[in-house]
User: Fold this.
Amino acid sequence: MSLLIAQFLTGLANAAALFLVASGLSLIFGVTRIVNFAHGSFYMLGAFIGYSLMQVLPGFFGFWSSVLLAGIAVGLIGVIVEMFVLRPIYKAPELFQLVATFGVILVIQDLTLMTWGAVDVLGPRVPGLKGVVRILGEPVPQYDLALIAITPFVLFALWYLITKTRVGILVRAATQDREMVGALGVNQAWLFTGVFFLGAALAGLGGAIQLPKGGADLLMDFNILAAIFVVVVIGGMGSLPGAYLAAVLISVLNVFGVSYIPQSTLVLMFVVMAVVLMVKPFGLLGREEVAGEHGQVGEPERPFKPAGKKGRIIVAALLLLLALLPVFGSSFAMVLVTDIIIFCLFAASLHFILGLGGLVSFGHAAYFGGGAYVAALLVSSAGTPMELAFLLAPLGACLAAVIIGWLCIRLTGVYFAMLTMAFAQLLWSLVYQWDEFTGGDDGLVDIWPSPWLAETEAYYYLTLIVGVGGIILLRHTAHTPFGYALRASRDSSRQAEATGIHTKRVQWAAFAFAGSMAGLAGALFVFSKGSIFPTELEIARSFDALIVVFLGGVKTLSGAVVGGATLELVKDYLTRFEYWRLILGVLIIVIVILAPDGIVGSLRKLGERTGLLREAEVSK
Amino acid sequence: MLECKNINSFYGKAHILNDLCMSVDAGTVVSLLGRNGAGKTTTIKSIMQMVVPKTGQVTFLDRDITGWPPHKVARMGLGYVPEERRIFTDLTILENLEVGRQPARDGSIEWTIEMLFEIFPNLKERRNNRGKELSGGEQQMLTIARTLMGNPKLLLLDEPSEGIAPVIVEQMAETILNLKAQGVTVLISEQNLHFARIVADRAVIIESGSLKFDGTFLDLDAQPEIQGAYLSV
Ligand SMILES: Nc1ncnc2c1ncn2[C@@H]1O[C@H](COP(=O)(O)OP(=O)(O)OP(=O)(O)O)[C@@H](O)[C@H]1O
Ligand SMILES: [Mg+2]
Assistant:
C-alpha cells in the first residue's frame, strides 16, 4: 500500500512538467488554431536555458529565478516565432501552419546543437530540496512534493487568467471569432502574440522545472511531443483542467506501467488515448469541433478537371526522361530517383485522403512501414517468393487501414489526426518490441528482390512502372464517382448525405485505398533497400509525408508529387552539411511564407498573374 | 462624416462593388436599401475595411481609412453590427459586452452597462447567461449593445430587423430612434422599406454594387419605378 502511494506521488510529480508544457500547447491551439509542432522545441530550450542560468545563479533562489527566467526567455523566443513565422500565414487554410512549425523544430534543433553541443546535461539538485521525506516509510523526494504542490497553483492561475480577466475574455472571444474581435476594436494580432508568449513560456517553464529529474538532451523535443499531444487530446483541446487531468492520468499510469508491465511503456499513453477518444470523441473535457468554424476554410477550390493538353505533354516528356535515365544516368542517380518515386507514391497516397478527403492523418507511416514489414516478414519468416510478398504487401497495409480506419473515421479534425497517430505508434511499438518476430530495433535484413530484379536498372524500372502506375491510379480514382463522393463528403457532409452518399463509408474506403497505396510504396521501399527498420513506422516518417503534401500544395495531387521530389532532392543535397537541419528548416519556413498555396498552387497563381498561364488552360 | 468615393470591392475575382459613392452626415440615420445580394453587407464590410476596396477611398471624420486594419477603424469610432450577429456563444452577456468595451472618445456618448441594460431590459435579466442560450431577438440586442460598448460615433447596422419577431422589430426601431436622439449617427442596411422609412432620414439604394438612388423618402415616393426596379416590395 505504502509503495503504491509513493508511486502515485511520483506520478503526480511527473505530471507537473507534462501539464505545464501541454497547457501551453492547449492554450496556443485554443486561440490560434495552430497545431504547434515546435512546442517540444520550446520545452527543450527551456531546459537548456534553465541549465545555463542555474550554472551562474546559485542557491535556492538562484534555482527558482532560473526557472522563471528560462520561462520568460522561451516566451520571448515564442514571440519571435509568432511574429516572423506565423503571422504572415494566419490566413492560410487550417493545419497549414503546422508545416511552418515543423520548420521551426529543425531550426531550433540545430541552434541548440550549436549553442550547447551534443552532450546530455544533468540538471542540478535543488538547494534546500535535496532530501527525501518518508511517507508511510517510503522515501519521497522533497522536490517531488514541491512539484506536486506547485502544479495546482499554476492551474489555478491560468484558470483565473482565462476566465476572470479582460485579457482572458478577449482570448476566449478570439477563440471563437477573431475577425469579430478585431472589428470591435481589439488588436487581435497582439492578443495572439501574447497567447504565444504565454504558451511558449509555459513550455519553457516545464523544461526548466523538470531539470532536477530529467536533465536536458537534444532528443527531448521529439520525445515529449507525442506525450503532450496525447495529454491535450485526452483532456480535450483547449481545456486546461482537462490537460491537468490527462497529465496526471498519463503520468501515474506510466509509473505503474514501468513497475508492473514494462513492455507497455511505449504504448500505454496511446492506448489510453485511443480508449478515451472512442468513448469521448472530443476528449475528457473538450467540446465539439466544427470544421471551418474558425473562418479558415481558405478560398474556394478551382474546378477539378482532368489534365489539359499542355500538362499531358509535360508529364509525358518527364516520364520519357525518367525511362531513359538508365541510358545516360549513373547508378547513383537511379538509386536516388528510385527513392524519390517511392516517396512520391507514399506522399500521393496521403494526399488522396488529406487533399481530397480532408482527413488529416498523422499516422500514415503505419501503412508505408506496415506494407514494408508485411513483405519483409513474408520473405524472412515464411520464405515467400519475393513476387508474392510484393503483391501481398499492399493487401496487408489495406487490412491494417481497414481496421484502423474503422476506429478513427468517426472522429474529425485534430482528434482524427491524433487517433491515427496513436495507432501508428501502437504498430511501431509492436514491431519495436516483438524482437523474436520482427527483429525489433535491429530490423529485418537480407530482403532482396528476385534475381531478375536484382540489378539496379531492373529494379529502377520496376519502381518506375509500379510507382508511376500507382500515382496515376490515385489520380484516376480522384476523377471517378468515388473520388467525387469523397470530395463531397469533405466539403459538406450533410449535403452529401442528403444526395445519398454514405460519407463515413466513403471516407473509410478512401482511407483503406490510401493505406494500400502507401503499402505498395512500402513494398517498393523494402526491396530497394534490402532491409527494414522500425524507423519507417515512426511519427517522423508520417510527418515527412504530411509536410510534403502541405508544402507541395494540398489542392492538387501534383503538389504531393512535386513536394515529395523537391524534399528528397533537397535533403539529399543538404545532408552533406553539418547544420543541414537549420538550412532545411529555414527553407521550409520561407516556402510556407512565400507560397501559402504550396509550391504547385503558388506557381500556378504566379503563372496566371504574369500571364504565362491562362486560367482556362490550367483548369482544363 | 463618412464618405465612400468610387469604391470597388472584390471577393477573389468576383467584382462586387462598382464605383460605389455614398455618404452619411453626422447626426442622421441613413438606410442602405437593396435586394438580396445587392451588395449591402459588402458595402458595410468595405467601410470597416474587413473587405479592403481595391480602388477608391473611404473617409471617416476627414481621414482616409482605406486599408486600415479593422480594429483601428473601430477605434476611430465606427461601430459594426454584423448581419449574422456573431455574438460569442460561449461567453456570458456580461463578457460579450466586455469584449466590446473601448475607452470613450471625445464627442461620443460614454455607454455604461447600466445604460445599455436600460435600453435592453431583457439583457439585464439574463446577464449571466451564455450567448448560445439567448433567443434570436436577444442575440440581436446583444450584438448592438456590444458594439455600443465601444462608444461609436457612427453605428453600422447590417439588417437588424432580419429574422426577428415583429414586436421586436418595433422595439428595434424605437431603439434606433433613441440612439439617434442621443447623437449617434447610423447607417443601417435594410430590405424592409417600411422599417427603413420609420427610422431613417435618407435612403440609399444599391443594386449589383452600384448606386441607383440617393435621396429622401419623399423623393423616393415620387419615383415609384425605382422602388419597383430595385426593391422587392
Ligand atoms: N464571401 C464571399 N465570397 C464570394 N462572394 C460573396 C461573398 N459574400 C458575398 N458574396 C457575393 O457578393 C454579392 C453581394 O453580397 P452581399 O452579402 O453584400 O449582399 P447583401 O446585399 O448584403 O445581401 P443580403 O440581403 O442577402 O444580405 C452577392 O452576389 C454574393 O453572392
Ligand atoms: Mg447582407
In short: The mean pLDDT of chain B is 89. The interface with chain A takes residues 12, 48, 50, 69-71, 74-75, 80, 82, 86, 88-91, 95-96, 98-102, 146-147, 150 of chain B (CB under 8 Å).
